[in-house]
Design goal:
Blueprint lengths: L1 E2 L4 E3 L2 H8 L34 E10 L2 E11 L2 E8 L2 E9 L6 E8 L10 E9 L2 E6 L4 E5 L4 E7 L2 E6 L3 H5 L11 E4 L7 E7 L6 E4 L5 E7 L4 E6 L4 E9 L2 H9 L65 E2 L27 H6 L26 E8 L15 E6 L5 E7 L4 E9 L6 E10 L2 E5 L4 E5 L5 E5 L2 E7 L30 H12 L16 H7 L10 E8 L2 E6 L4 E5 L7 H13 L2 H15 L10 H13 L7 H4 L23 H7 L2 H14 L10 H4 L15 H15 L9 H15 L2 H10 L15 H6 L13 H10 L6 E4 L4 H13 L14 E4 L13 H7 L5 H11 L4 H5 L3 H16 L7 H6 L3 H11 L29 H7 L5 H9 L5 E2 L10 H20 L1 H8 L21 E3 L4 E3 L12 H13 L10 H6 L8 H13 L8 H9 L3 H14 L6 H9 L16 H14 L6 H11 L13 H15 L15 H10 L9 H5 L15 H15 L6 H7 L5 H4 L4 H14 ...
Parallel strand pairs: 1-28, 14-20, 32-33, 34-35, 39-45
Antiparallel strand pairs: 2-31, 3-4, 4-5, 5-6, 6-19, 7-8, 8-9, 9-10, 11-12, 12-13, 13-14, 14-15, 16-17, 17-18, 18-20, 21-22, 22-23, 23-24, 25-26, 26-27, 27-28, 29-30, 30-31, 35-36, 37-38, 39-42, 40-41, 40-43, 43-44
Helix pairs in contact: 6-8, 7-8, 7-14, 8-9, 14-15, 15-16, 18-60, 19-20, 19-21, 21-23, 23-59, 23-60, 25-54, 29-30, 29-52, 30-32, 32-34, 34-36, 35-36, 36-38, 37-38, 38-41, 39-41, 41-44, 42-44, 44-47, 47-48, 47-50, 48-50, 50-52, 51-52, 60-63, 61-62
Length: 1913
């Protein structure tokens, strides 16, 4: 009988909470009129007169990382779900959900987020709530989904990674099916909330006879599903049988076959009408072979056409997608609708039930009463099934069918204690629990089911964690089973029993296999149950000492308490707990005791399971569980004592005669439960006699006699004890397996030696093993255990119960070795390189032992096999009936595949792949752990850069492990700064630049306040100060006008600020999903000191819509703040930011474009994009088109292409309706086409854009204004499409693109229009008359840039010659001076590789005539009439500016010092030309424009560096406001923005697409006023984002998590210009582009070295740079950071202290604290390294501890501190106090490693000579001290060793002898050569040769030679 815990009342937590919950929303819709509708049959299933909301609940335990979450409860009541967590009495609500309709099903469910091959697989942990026509899914990340279902659900089931739905079957389908209704699927699956529900296919049969079809049979209903294994159980309501199916993914061919059965392509299918068609014929059903007729009962009925079950789908009220719902505050209404985007944003809308969607599911939308319009039904391809049910098993049909009553009430999976699996289902009407054994097939593709075994039960519940199940039998008794084996009855105290009538019936013997066959008749079981009820519990426990079989022991425990009829059911099994349903409606919660609590008992039980046959091991485990958990009030002995006695009893021993069973228990007393007797027929006095003869009785008398004056009276002694010599019972169940058990337990014993904290339990197991080895006459094993535990000698006096004749009756497995396997001896021999015997490993026993052996096999792959073949190192064994499975990797294949690695590197990689952790290493004894720690120490210095995260963690390089983790986690939700919302500062102080990385900027710019100055320059929220002095003659009104005019001039600068601010704050923030993104105010007011009067534009006229485009730029700047990987920026949040007032539409339009540039705009739902575009707001259209195009750059996205094409008249069909598309929108669409098809050389769009460059004005009034910007946009778009392709593309040769562009650039006669343009432009323009010449003022800029981009980096000299500046005055007159700038830029693009950062190269672009005459007034009077000085001066300015611009593009983001100096020179040149004389010769606008261009080029080179020289000059230009245009201010602010791009984290790249984007952004023609878009669309200024990339490396100390200065070395790749180039920098810094680098190294002695190879670690570098550039570094011990110690003086002092060994014994603990911040070390210092001053001995110990700790900390090896302490304890503890030789054997292992294997394994493979963790001097000191102790003993007691060697005798105090034998590795005496033991006067050489095979050291041989001398004996 099993004693369960005391029960306690249980009430679902959700029930009480729902009483306080407001509940669901009331349905205010008016009742629908009565109409003829189909009502699902399931609706009548549970109808009551007083129908109350149903309740149900589920419970589980969930493992979250290392933390175990106790009971989780999911409570469902009506329309409310309550999810709570905690333990009884301490439970809290986690989340609540409320919906509008009654809940059908709710459960925890996992979905697979991988929906296509490109996405990353991730499991979504959710709660799925199913109601009538929809399913709501809530993830644990806060996301929620609502998926509408095109059918009503009768039941939902949780499956692996999804849900399974059963469609409601209407009465019309069953009784009056319409033609074809029998083909409607009844089961559907949902693999992801955004997927459409797919029908489920079924497959039955094998091979050629297999058949695949959709599940359409409405008689098949699901009764059970499971996740692992993925099984589904169904019940056939017609045949009354259950079937089991395996659920798997459907194959494509199966999907086509299943859907092909419905000929959806035949239109007659929708209209055919066949009466009396069999509805569910088994000719096409999966169970057709079960009935002789081939049809179910219902299939024999005739049918008449019925009403469609989907008649009211469209009219059943609000759609589930838009239904309002209540939920807990933890789930915000702004929670995301998808994993990374909204459903609509990805084009995946939830299907609404309609005729089109129904056809996809194989559901006919047409019938006579359908509300759908038949004419509008469009039949699409049927939706293929995602899952398939493979038929596995069907129970046999009974003669007497139970019909629906035979349906199971409960189904569960269980397993027995040996791992055999069973599927159990309860038939309530028969009180039977049917169990079917199952297992996987050989190919693991299916499951094989056995026969059915019926157990009598009214209810049952599975205890999965214990591999047991509890049954409630017909007598209301609780019976515990494991599989089909009965363990015993369960006794639950606290429930009053029902006393039966008095009877003298004796307990009935039973067997553990009782009820394993078919069920007995019900009346027989009831009669037997009544007989069992008469038996009351006897106080005598089951007998163990004389049990012959386990059946007797189990039956003897099978006494029963009076039953309690108040239990009516069982439920809610969770861990080892379950609930009892009481007759009164209450619930009680109880728990079963665990199988074991001792790890040692657990290991032994696992060994029994692996070594014994399954039926025998099952009996043993059942017997142990029954014995360990029998109900008793007496105190229990220790679990190990109880286990040992139970085991010996099952082996047949008479345990009352064994010394080991008489030892006093650890718990103090022995209870009667522990001491057992034979089972025999009880009489009236048996129990009393047993009690007075028990050891417990004797112990109580001996303890209490002195107090009570009682004289001890010996009781009668059983005859079997005092008779002849005891003998073992050969009929015991485990008798014949004693040798196998002993050998298996020896493996457990060896594994126990690998646990540092379990070493004290070695003696417990050694006691048992010694006893078994003695009985088995294993002399070598006996000697081995004596050496390990010398105190075992007293057990030799035991009387042996095993005689020689008994040994012949036992089974002797062939794998038992004559010598005991010893890991220490095996490792010592491997370290010496000696041949060793194979180590015997039994499958499944000693998993840790197997891991350690495999690790050392890899470590010593070459060294440890000297003289060994590969197969001789280890021998894997498996017991009979058990499959040989290895828990380790194939070390030989591993070593061969990693042959290039050193031994230390190889073993670290192997350990990481074996999931070996530092905690595992610390649990090992120091002798086994130190060699592995040496390998770790060797690899820690400079590990390879391509290791896994686990490998870096193992070697203690947390910096590299975090870096490797970035490769897998590029999720911004997990890294970077915390989300920042709009409440970062007060509303008045908000300027849009709050999210700067202050920590990084403080390190990058520590000496000044340049960042704050930039922030001051770019803020636009504060009013400007208008400082004017009113003259006496000026009236107040005139003074106000003067103030407002000055404010207007300054406002030009303020309106140009947002472009620069957008650059400065690029990608700095991550928004809060519940808040709108704040947009800083564009303040155009002023303040007049000293009274700070507000100045507005109230007295002067200002341009109309002056703030329109500045507001747009302000919105773009706000949108650009959002980081590209920011989470939850979806369609809902974007729409949430839409302003309610129309006044901020321009800002929102810019905000949309900013989102597009950051890649977030594609998340916007398609319908919402349509809503934005149809409003006709120009800037909104511009933002949408450019944003989407930028987000899809280079992808050729079809949907974006269609949207852009609608806005370009040239791409519309000639017969299409003419659309009134604004000009700026057309320009945006044209550039968008170029971005989407960037670099593709798409012929169609290239041809159209080529024509659009020269698009003539007209027809009529169209295309007459701002033609220049459209032509430029077409040229830029064409250049982007043809970027770098040149004229070599064969598909474009016929277009003569190069000639046409040249024609547009230089002019000439217009070529005749062809194709569509000929008719379109037949009508001339009414405003512009161009004549027959090409208007180069319109076409030249776009054509020039297109030509340069087309031949980008091709070095085509012919094209470059076209683009060079003219050499003569005549040719110069044909080119506008400002076009020369564009030509020089295009010339540089073509000759890209020839650009040189020097003044000479820039000036080499000037023609000689320009150099001669430009700005030369001295020869003005000597000039010919043809030379124009002004033209020459303007030409020089534009040519130099163009050369500087292309130089800036070439070296953008490089911070090249030569380019910087060159551009600085020309900035000064142009700034000097602003003087009065020279400005007249070239014109102010020319000088200002060229100055702006050169400044931009200068800032692009220094992008992200924050250079002070550039900033000073830009600030100087920023301070000007008189006669400065809006465009000049914009250029200045863009220069400042480039300088601090992304807050100093971003810079520019120089790839082809990036150059194209920069050309669009910095086109050298700036607007004159804020609304100027004539030459260039202002929105294109923001395309620089496409060229920006993060290249900041920000070192962060992995221990303190603070940023730090770290020296870096950047090694460049070899090129034609330089080889072996490297650059040293101090991080944080910006690095060059990765394409130029070979590797990045962390230098300096202060931090551990890190090497990142660009090619090998490209993904790590990219993820690192995208995640704020965080490079984790680890500081070395004894060094301070560069911030704390810039010059290294303090670190130098620390290093001196580290290397100085003379001061070890005078270490101050405060000095130790200065070297480390490890809390473990600091705690050790505070506990063990403080002098107490009590005595000198304590002070000496503290000094030693301080020395050891100091050595560990300063040399960065704190992990071996415990090894130091263990060695210290071994050396200093007297041997008389040692508990065995375990520690000394480990010390021997350490010395063998350092003396024989260290040099070979580590020193021989290292470039530098490694420093061992244990100093050689320390090892010598330890060895000498141990030798001194043992040699002193040997000198005093030589005869003890001589007696052992000669006769094998052990002394009465064998402690010193065992230590001597273990330390020197002496074999057993029988292995010594007789000539050595009997000989005399042996010389050392002869002795060495005689003992050579024993592999003894020279010093040991000399000791043996000394004691064997005649005079020494």
């Amino acid at each position: 009988m099993i004693a369960a815990s005391d029960p306690h009342d249980f009430v679902p937590f959700g029930r009480g909470f729902c009483g306080r919950h407001p509940g669901g929303l009331s349905d205010s819709r008016p009742p629908s009129p009565v109409q003829d509708v189909d009502i699902p049959i399931a609706a009548f299933r549970d109808v009551q007169i007083h129908d109350k909301p149903k309740e149900s609940w589920y419970m589980r335990n969930r493992q979250t990382g290392s933390q175990m979450v106790s009971d989780e409860e999911l409570y469902i009541h009506g329309s409310t779900v309550v999810w709570s967590k905690g333990s009884p009495g301490h439970r809290v609500v986690h989340k609540t959900f409320t919906i509008n309709s009654p809940i059908i099903h709710a459960h925890w469910c996992d979905f697979n987020s991988k929906r296509n091959s490109d996405s990353v697989e991730e499991v979504l942990n959710t709660i799925a709530i199913t109601h009538k026509g929809a399913v709501n899914v809530y993830t644990d990340r806060g996301e929620d989904f609502c998926a509408a279902l095109p059918f009503q659900v009768s039941q939902a089931w949780k499956i692996k990674n999804g849900l399974l739905f059963e469609r409601s079957i209407t009465s019309g389908e069953v009784f009056s099916p319409k033609s074809g209704s029998g083909n409607l699927p009844t089961m559907f699956s949902l693999r992801h909330p955004l997927d459409e529900p797919a029908p489920v296919a079924s497959r039955y049969g094998v091979g050629l006879t297999s058949k695949v079809c959709l599940m359409r049979d409405h008689t098949q209903c699901i009764v059970f599903t499971s996740d692992e294994p993925s099984l589904v159980m169904t019940f056939d309501t017609a045949l009354g049988v259950h079937s089991v199916w395996m659920l798997r993914e459907a194959k494509p061919e199966e999907g086509r076959t299943a859907t092909g059965l419905i000929d959806m392509s035949n239109p007659m299918y929708l209209h055919r009408n066949q009466s009396a068609t069999p509805h569910a014929s088994y000719g096409s059903s999966a169970l057709g072979f079960l009935s002789s007729g081939g049809q179910s009962f219902l299939s024999m009925l005739s049918y008449s056409p019925g009403v469609s079950p989907y008649r009211n789908i469209a009219s059943r009220g609000a759609s589930p997608m838009v239904s309002s719902r209540q939920q807990s505050p933890a789930l915000s209404h702004m929670a995301a609708m998808s994993r990374s985007q909204s459903p609509a944003g990805s084009g995946l809308t939830t299907p609404s039930p309609g005729p089109h969607s129904l056809a996809r599911y194989g559901l006919s939308p047409h019938n006579s009463t359908s509300v759908f319009n038949e004419s509008s039904a469009v039949v699409s391809e049927p939706l293929a099934p995602a899952l398939c049910l493979d038929h596995c098993w069907t129970e046999q049909s009974q003669n007497v069918r139970d019909g629906v009553l035979g349906k199971t009430k409960k189904v569960f999976l269980t397993a027995d204690l040996c791992g055999q699996n069973y599927l159990c289902y309860l038939i309530e009407m028969r009180n039977q629990l049917k169990c079917v054994k199952y297992g996987p097939s050989n190919d693991r593709t299916s499951y094989i089911f056995g026969t059915v075994t019926a157990l009598t039960a009214r209810d049952a519940v599975s205890i999965e964690s214990m591999n047991m199940m509890v049954l409630l039998d017909t007598n209301n008794s609780l019976i515990l089973y494991t599989g089909l084996v009965k363990i015993g009855k369960v006794h639950i105290s606290g429930i009053p029993p029902m006393i039966a009538s008095q009877s003298s019936s004796l307990p009935r013997p039973s067997t553990p296999l009782e009820s394993s066959g078919s069920a007995e008749p019900q009346h027989a079981s009831e009669a037997r149950g009544l007989a069992d009820e008469m038996v009351l519990l006897s106080p005598v426990p089951c007998g163990l000492e004389d049990s012959s079989k386990l059946q007797d022991s189990v039956s003897s425990m099978d006494f029963m308490f009076a039953v309690n009829r108040s239990i009516i059911g069982l439920r809610d099994a969770n861990d080892n707990r379950f609930s009892l349903e009481m007759a009164g409606g209450g619930l009680k919660r109880t728990s079963l005791p665990l199988m074991y609590s001792s790890p040692l008992v657990m290991s032994c039980l696992e060994a029994l399971k692996q070594i014994l046959p399954k039926d025998v091991s099952l009996q043993a485990l059942v017997n142990w569980y029954s014995t360990n958990n029998a109900p008793s009030s007496a105190l229990k002995a220790s679990e190990w004592k109880l286990f040992m006695r139970c085991l010996l009893s099952m082996m047949g021993y008479n345990i009352t005669q064994l010394t080991i069973s008489q030892q006093s228990d650890l718990d103090g007393t022995l209870s009667p439960v522990m001491t057992t007797k034979k089972h025999k027929v009880s009489t009236e006095n048996d129990d009393w006699e047993y009690l007075i003869n028990s050891d417990y009785h004797k112990l109580m008398i001996s303890q209490n006699s002195c107090f009570c004056g009682v004289t001890t009276v010996e009781g009668s002694t059983p005859s079997n004890i005092t008779g002849d010599q005891p003998s073992i019972d050969t009929s015991a169940p485990l008798f014949m397996y004693i040798p196998a058990i002993a050998f298996a337990f020896h493996s457990v014993y060896e594994e126990l030696k690998l646990e540092r904290l379990q070493s004290e339990k070695l003696s417990c197991l050694a006691t048992l093993l010694f006893h078994l080895a003695s009985d088995l006459q294993w002399d070598d094993y006996i000697d081995y255990y004596k050496r390990d535990c010398p105190n075992l000698l007293h057990l030799e006096k035991d009387k042996r119960q095993v005689h020689p004749d008994h040994l012949k009756l036992m089974q002797w497995p062939s794998y038992i070795t004559t010598e005991p396997p010893s890991l220490v001896e095996w490792l010592v021999e491997c370290f010496h390189g000696n041949p060793v015997d194979p180590y015997a490993l039994i499958n499944g026993i000693g998993k840790k032992l197997q891991k350690i052996i495999s690790v050392y096999l890899v470590f010593m792959y070459e060294h440890g096999r000297q003289g060994n073949t590969r197969a001789n190192l280890v021998r894997r064994l498996s017991a009979t009936g058990h499959q040989l499975r290895s828990i380790t990797l194939d070390y030989e294949k591993f070593c061969e595949s990693h042959a290039s690695l050193s031994p230390s590197e190889r073993v670290i990689v192997y350990m990481s792949q074996m999931n070996f952790t530092l905690q595992d290493l610390q649990s090992l004894p120091f002798g086994v752990a130190l060699p592995l720690q040496e390998a770790i120490s060797e690899c820690k210095k400079s590990p390879p850069s391509d290791w896994s995260e686990a490998a870096y963690v193992l070697i203690g390089r947390q910096d590299l492990s975090k870096q490797a983790k970035m490769e897998k986690e590029i999720d911004y939700r997990k890294k970077g700064r915390k989300p920042q919302g709009g409440t970062a500062s007060s509303k008045d102080d908000f300027d849009g630049m709050e999210q700067l990385d202050e920590e990084m900027l403080r390190l990058r710019f520590p000496d000044d306040l340049r960042v704050y100055e930039v922030r001051r320059l770019l803020q636009s929220t504060k009013p400007v100060h208008i400082v004017l002095t009113q003259k006496p003659e000026v009236t107040d009104h005139e003074f106000q006008e003067e103030q407002e005019f000055k404010l207007l001039s300054i406002s030009q600068r303020t309106m140009a600020l947002p472009v620069g601010r957008g650059m400065f704050s690029l990608h700095l923030a991550r928004p809060v999903v519940t808040e709108t993104l704040p947009i800083p105010k564009l303040n155009l007011t002023g303040k007049a000191p000293p009274r700070n009067n507000t100045i507005n534009f109230s007295h002067i006229d200002v341009p109309t819509n002056m703030e329109a485009w500045p507001s747009f730029h302000n919105g773009v700047a706000a949108g650009l703040k959002i980081a590209p990987g920011a989470s939850q920026v979806d369609s809902t949040w974007i729409a949430y930011n839409k302003p309610s007032e129309n006044g901020r539409s321009n800002e929102h339009a810019g905000f949309l474009m900013g989102l597009g540039l950051n890649g977030h705009l594609p998340n916007l739902a398609t319908l919402k994009v349509h809503d934005y575009l149809i409003k006709g707001h120009e800037m909104t259209s511009v933002g949408i088109l450019l944003g989407l195009a930028a987000a899809r750059a280079g992808t050729m996205d079809v949907s974006v292409t269609k949207m852009l094409s609608i806005h370009i008249p040239a791409l519309l069909p000639p017969t299409s309706t003419e659309l009134d598309v604004p000009h700026v929108v057309q320009v945006s669409a044209v550039v968008g086409i170029g971005l989407v098809y960037q670099g593709t050389a798409h012929r169609r769009f290239a041809e159209v854009l080529l024509d659009e460059i020269g698009r003539p004005p007209g027809p009529e009034m169209e295309n007459s204004t701002d033609r220049e910007s459209y032509s430029l946009a077409a040229g830029l778009a064409l250049g982007l499409i043809m970027l770098g392709h040149g004229s070599d593309d064969v598909s474009l040769l016929d277009l003569n693109m190069t000639d046409q562009l040249y024609h547009y650039m230089v002019g000439g006669f217009k070529r005749p229009l062809t194709g569509l343009n000929k008719e379109k432009y037949k009508s001339p323009s009414y405003q512009i008359k161009e004549g027959d010449q090409v208007n180069v003022s319109v076409t030249s800029p776009g054509a020039t840039l297109a030509l340069g981009m087309m031949f980008f980096n091709t070095n085509k000299s012919a094209v470059a010659q076209w683009l060079a500046a003219p050499e003569t005055q005549f040719l110069l007159d044909f080119v506008r001076p400002d076009f020369l700038l564009i030509r020089i830029v295009s010339h540089g693009l073509v000759m890209w590789s020839n650009i040189h950062p020097s003044i000479e190269w820039v000036e080499s672009n000037l023609p000689k005539i320009v150099k001669k005459y430009a700005f030369n007034r001295s020869i003005l009077n000597c000039l010919d009439e043809d030379v124009d000085i002004q033209t020459m001066s303007q030409a020089e300015c534009n040519i130099l500016a163009g050369a500087c611009l292309v130089l800036g593009l070439r070296f953008a983001g490089s911070a090249n010092q030569e380019a910087f100096n060159t551009l600085q020179h020309f900035v000064k040149v142009f700034h000097s030309k602003t003087s009065a004389d020279e400005i007249e010769m070239a014109g102010k606008s020319t000088i200002e424009n060229c100055l702006n261009v050169v400044l931009l080029a200068w800032s692009m080179v220094m992008a992200g560096t924050g250079d002070l020289n550039v900033l000073r000059f830009a600030r100087q230009l920023h301070g000007r406001f008189l006669d400065i245009t809006y465009g000049n201010h914009m250029a200045t602010h863009m220069a400042i923005g480039f300088l601090f791009l992304g807050g100093g984290r971003y810079t520019l790249q120089s790839s082809g697409p990036a150059i194209g984007a920069l050309l669009c952004s910095i086109f050298p023609r700036f607007p004159v006023h804020s609304n100027d878009n004539r030459y260039h669309l202002q929105a294109l200024r923001h395309l620089y984002v496409l060229a920006a990339e993060p290249r900041l490396i920000l070192p962060r100390d992995v221990d303190s998590n603070k940023v730090a200065y770290v020296p870096l070395e950047l090694v460049y790749k070899d090129t034609d210009w330089y080889k072996g180039k490297s650059l040293k920098m101090m991080a944080p810094c910006l690095i060059p582009e990765l394409k130029y680098l070979e590797q990045i190294n962390v230098l300096g002695p202060r931090y551990w070295p890190v090497t990142l190879h660009v090619e090998k670690n490209k993904m790590i570098l990219k993820s690192m740079l995208s995640c704020n550039g965080c490079l984790y570094v680890k500081q070395r011990a004894g060094h301070l950071s560069y911030e704390q110690d810039p010059k290294g003086y303090l670190s130098l002092l620390a290093r001196t202290m580290t290397e100085d060994c003379s001061s070890y014994h005078s270490i101050d603990v405060e000095v130790i604290k200065s070297f480390t911040s490890d809390p473990r070390v600091l705690e050790f210092v505070s506990q063990f390294c403080k002098h107490t001053g009590k005595n000198e001995e304590d002070s000496e110990v503290v000094a030693v501890f301080s020395t050891l700790l100091y050595d560990c900390v300063t040399r960065e090896k704190p992990d071996i501190l415990h090894s130091f302490l263990d060695i210290f304890e071994v050396v200093n503890q007297p041997l008389s106090l040692a508990n065995g030789t375990y520690a000394l054997s480990q010390l021997r292992l350490v010395l063998a490693f350092y003396q024989h294997a260290y040099t070979c394994l580590l020193s021989g493979h290292s470039k530098e000579k490694p420093t061992p963790l244990l100093d050689p001097q320390f090892c010598n000191m330890v060895e000498n001290k141990v030798n001194l102790v043992l040699n002193t003993w040997l000198k005093d007691n030589p005869g003890v060793l001589v007696q052992y060697l000669l006769q094998g005798l052990w002394p009465s105090t064998p402690l010193y002898l065992s230590h001597f034998l273990v330390y020197h590795g002496l074999p057993q005496n029988k292995n010594f050569p007789k000539e050595v033991l009997e000989g005399t006067n042996f010389m050392l050489p002869k002795m060495y040769m005689a003992l050579k095979d024993l592999k003894l050291s020279i010093s040991t041989i000399m000791l043996i030679m000394q004691i064997l001398q005649p005079g020494a004996r």
